[in-house]
From TrEMBL:
Classification via Gene3D superfamilies: Aspartate Aminotransferase, domain 1 (3.90.1150.10), Type I PLP-dependent aspartate aminotransferase-like (Major domain) (3.40.640.10)
Pfam family, one: Aminotran_1_2
Domain Aminotransferase class I/classII large: 54-357
Keywords assigned by UniProt, alphabetized: Aminotransferase, Transferase
Entry protein name: Aspartate/methionine/tyrosine aminotransferase
UniProt-listed CDD domains: AAT_like
GO molecular function: pyridoxal phosphate binding; transaminase activity
Coiled coil region boundaries: none
InterPro entries membership: Aminotransferase_I/II_large, PyrdxlP-dep_Trfase, PyrdxlP-dep_Trfase_major, PyrdxlP-dep_Trfase_small
Domain of life: Bacteria
Source organism (scientific name): Nonomuraea dietziae
Length: 377
């Protein structure tokens, strides 16, 4: 295994996330307070919270939590679910379980950095880029061309971070079928599922389409509860699940008991939380549309099809890296420049930035952003 590179996003956030006045690049939906979450609990879960003891929990995860998670899938049982400390641990361990030095993986880009760098630390990896000139479309023929006889993993992320794009349901089903035909594990990052602008475009979860597929999810993004640090993988392949549990013995061993009870409450109340968060995004988008319309000479804007982040193009001659640096230093408005999403596998547009649309009341941040831009005219 080669040494992993610095995690660019987290390094950038270490400098700015809690010091910038306006966090306008948040990747999670609107969060809630402890009292708001507990108000959603049924009597049994509220009792479990009030009588909770702080002993070790099961490595696979709290059985009642796994049952609640399984009920959000078709064809998935509680035994098909294993919980982790966030999605990052799940992704890291899954790649180590599925890939070895003689293997090959294919990763669709752009993507969350570890979706690329962790496989690269283990084996050969090829990238297939979404097309920025065609609304970030995925070309299935390019995916097929990238596969090799020793390909073991195809990693995808829809709704996509950072672009907010979706694929058609038929294309996603074709990806699952293609992987089954070739003995490949489809690894599907689904952390933004449930925040589609058009709910009719919500994709099936990969674990519903294939016994070999792995569906990754977490309470952090669509549910807006990153502080719980609770993620999971659903997979109907018993051998893969067993290997994931054994791998977890070397990292967190088990999840935090308070997080498991709170996550159980959130997952059971998932429909209400998602409805609220979709409403926040829908209310916010006109403000973002108006902002980018005012500065049409500087930006190409496209609202996300799913999730709560978008990836506009910056047209200024100073370049997006300098633009983002000066914006946060002078106006206190934090965005993520294209370098954060640079890929070692595919050409990556260098004129983009990530912006978040899922937090309540983006007005003050957009006002500060607009005032700064007007001052530069």
């Amino acid at each position: 295994m080669t040494r992993l590179p610095d995690f660019r996003l987290e390094t950038y956030f270490s400098r700015w996330e809690f010091t910038a006045r306006h966090h306008l690049t948040a990747s999670d939906a609107q969060t809630m307070t402890m009292s708001e979450l507990l108000a959603l609990a049924d009597p049994g879960d509220l009792h479990a919270w009030e009588t909770l003891s702080f002993g070790y929990t099961e490595t696979f995860g709290d059985p009642a939590l796994r049952q609640a998670i399984a009920e959000t899938y078709a064809h998935v049982d509680a035994d098909d679910v294993i919980c982790f400390t966030g999605a990052q641990e799940a992704l890291y361990l899954a790649m180590h379980v599925l890939l070895g030095p003689a293997d090959h993986a294919v990763v669709v880009t752009p993507n969350y950095q570890s979706a690329e760098t962790v496989p690269l630390s283990l084996c050969e990896v090829s990238g297939v880029a979404l097309n920025p000139d065609d609304d970030w479309a995925l070309d299935l023929e390019r995916v097929v061309a990238a596969l090799r006889p020793n390909t073991r993993v195809l990693s995808v992320n829809f709704p996509n971070n950072p672009t907010g794009t979706l694929v058609d349901a038929a294309d996603f089903a074709r990806l699952a079928q293609l992987c089954d035909e070739r003995g490949i594990h489809l690894f599907s990052d689904e952390v933004y599922r449930g925040l589609e602008l058009d709910p009719s475009r919500t994709l099936a979860q990969a674990a519903e389409l294939s016994e070999r597929a792995l569906s990754l999810n977490v309470t952090s993004k669509s549910l807006g509860l990153p502080g719980l640090r609770l993620g999971w993988i659903a997979c109907r392949d018993k051998e893969v699940r067993s290997r994931l549990e054994r791998a977890k013995h070397y990292t967190t061993i088990c999840n935090a008991a308070p997080s498991e009870v709170l996550a159980r409450i959130a997952v059971k109340a998932r429909d209400r939380i998602l409805e609220r968060n979709r409403a926040v995004i829908a209310a916010n988008l006109p403000a973002f549309d108006a902002f980018f319309a005012e500065f049409g000479e500087l930006f190409e804007w496209r609202a996300p099809e799913g999730g709560c982040v978008a990836y506009p193009r910056y047209l200024g001659t100073d370049g997006v890296e300098r633009f983002c640096a000066e914006l946060v230093e002078q106006a206190g408005v934090l965005l993520l420049p294209a370098s954060i999403y640079r890929s070692e596998l595919t050409p990556t547009p260098g004129d983009r930035f990530r912006i978040g649309v899922g937090r309540r009341d983006p007005g003050p941040a957009l006002d500060a952003f607009a005032a700064w831009l007007r001052g530069r005219r």
